[in-house]
Each structure stands twice: as structure tokens, then as C-alpha cells.
Amino acid sequence: MAKLSLDQPLGTITVGDLRELIKEVLREERRYYLDEEGYLVFLREEDYADYLEKQGKLPSEVRAYFIDEQGYKAFYSDWVPTPEYAKELDEARREIAEGKVHAFEDVVKELGLWGSSCTKRTK
Could you tell me the maximum CA-CA distance found in the chain, to the nearest angstrom? Predict the structure, then answer.
């Protein structure tokens, strides 16, 4: 599609350019649609998340998904971390934010993986 401007007269663009422009506007305005199987398909993850929040249901309880950046169908999991695991995740996020990270080699040594195929470096 040729680069169009708002000042450009309609008579100077091709029908193909006009068609593509209309499709682009419709894509921007349309936030979701219904697919052949009756699922709500959201074009943005944010809209999907808002929908789930408004429904007050778990993702598996609604017939909806969103299209991710690569064009794949995606949906949230029902998994909720236990309170103990949530604390561990918060602690890890805090440490990362503070710059407290561990070297890869230290982690694999602690896990007992040193020397395994996943730690061998290629040149």
C-alpha cells in the first residue's frame, strides 16, 4: 500500500490502497470477534485480560482467547501460586530489581548439573 496522507485527494489513490486503508481502520477499531466455534477472539491481550476481570471467572470458564504477537491463539491458565510460592516469586522479583542476580555457572553448580550436556559451551 502506498503511503497515504490526510491531505491527499481521494481521486489520487488506487482502489487497492483504499481497500487496504479500510481494512486497517477496521482492524484498529475491532477489539474482538466471534470465531467459527463460538469463542470470543481478542486481538489484544489487554482486552482479553479486561474481559476476564469483568467476567469474574477463571480463564477455563469462558470461551475466549487472544492472538499473541506471533499470531498464535493464547489464553491464560487457571494456575494460582500458593501463598508460599507467591512469597518466593516476590522475593526473586525484588532481588532482580535490586540487581542481585547469580551467574549461570554458579546456578548449575548448585543444582549439581555442572559437566552435563546443558552446561557445555561451544565455540
Answer: 71
**Cβ-based neighbour number of residue 66 at 10 Å:** 21
pTM: 0.50
Amino acid at site 98:
E
Cell of 90: 516476590
80/31 Cα distance (integer angstroms): 27
What local confidence, expressed as pLDDT, does residue 100 receive?
87
**Rounded CA separation 123/106 (Å):** 20
pLDDT tens-digit map of 38-52: 999 998 899 999 999
Q: Where does 1-123 have alpha helices with state H?
A: 15-29, 45-55, 83-97, 104-111
CA atoms within 13 A on the CB side of 63: 8
Classify each residue of 13-52 as buried b or exposed e, where b means 16 or more C-beta atoms within 10 Å of its C-beta: eeeeeeeeeeeeeeeeeeebeeeeeebbbbeeeeebeebb
